[in-house]
Design a protein that fits this description.
The chain contains 9 helices and 4 strands; from the N terminus they run βαβββαααααααα. By secondary structure, it is of the alpha+beta class. The protein folds into 2 domains: 76 residues, Glutaredoxin (3-Layer(aba) Sandwich), CATH 3.40.30.10; 136 residues, Glutathione S-transferase Yfyf (Class Pi), Chain A, domain 2 (Up-down Bundle). A hairpin with a 2-residue loop joins strand 3 and strand 4. Helix 1 packs parallel to helix 2. The longest helix has 32 residues. The chain is globular. It starts with a strand and ends in an 8-residue tail after the last helix. This is Glutathione S-transferase family protein.
């Protein structure tokens, strides 16, 4: 059985960058499940699998189609219980929901402002037009104005990591001695920036940097299979 993971990319189809797809790629690797990556652009999403989704990731596992990175993780946990756990119990699942909320509310908006122009510049022209229109509608201002605000977002970015930094001073992963899905949630945000933008969000000597390097090495170096921008 061949699993397919539909993965967002720019004009270079060998460089998938979606933070949410990276959560799923790491989850599949964590479970030891083989999969093929199907690269797609923003404007191609609605055409895949007969219009099954308007967002990625989308996973085809045999006859089953699953969307949303958290739902995919839950599906993998239920379907492959004999494989390494992504949640290690109800408590870890609940904590992962909190981590997802923190990542979406704190990390993603800041990262978006920092790298938004880099994302745009790496897209095909048809996707650039879509990206500009959709992001300007979301932010209520021009793409250039959002990008200009990225400087202040970068200047204060390290402060936003303090809860994560505090934890990683005392343990190697959010999951403890070994990673869980909570790690992949946060990893996705940093991997997104690493692949798309030459701007560096993490500094040497930071416990968060050390954790990110450990995550890049997981599963045979899956995270390093795409080089940094």
């Amino acid at each position: 059985m061949t699993r397919k993971l539909y993965s967002l990319c720019g004009s270079d189809r060998a460089r998938p960058f979606s933070p949410h797809v990276w959560k799923t790629a790491m989850s599949l690797a964590h479970k030891g499940l083989d999969f093929d990556t199907v690269p797609i652009g923003f404007t191609e999403i609605r055409a895949i699998e007969d219009g099954a989704t308007n967002l990625v990731p989308l996973l085809r596992d045999g006859e089953k189609l699953v969307k949303d990175s958290f739902e995919i993780a839950l599906y993998l946990e239920r379907t492959y219980p004999d494989r390494p756990a992504l949640f290690a119990g109800e408590g870890a699942m609940a904590i992962s929901r909190f981590v997802e909320g923190w990542s979406q509310a704190t990390l993603h908006p800041a990262v978006t402002r920092i790298i938004i122009r880099d994302i745009h510049d790496r897209l095909d022209p048809v996707d650039q037009a879509y990206f500009r229109e959709s992001r300007e509608k979301r932010f209520g201002t021009s793409l250039e104005a959002v990008a200009e605000s990225g400087g202040s977002s970068l200047a204060t970015f390290s402060e936003k990591l303090e809860p994560l930094r505090h934890l990683l001073k005392i343990q190697d992963f959010l999951g403890g001695a070994t990673p869980l899905f909570a790690d992949y949630i946060v990893f996705g945000a940093f991997q997104w920036a690493r692949i798309v933008s030459p701007q560096r969000l993490l500094q040497p000597g930071d416990p968060v940097t050390a954790w990110f390097e450990r995550c890049l090495d997981l599963h045979g170096g899956l995270g390093r299979s795409v080089t940094a921008a």
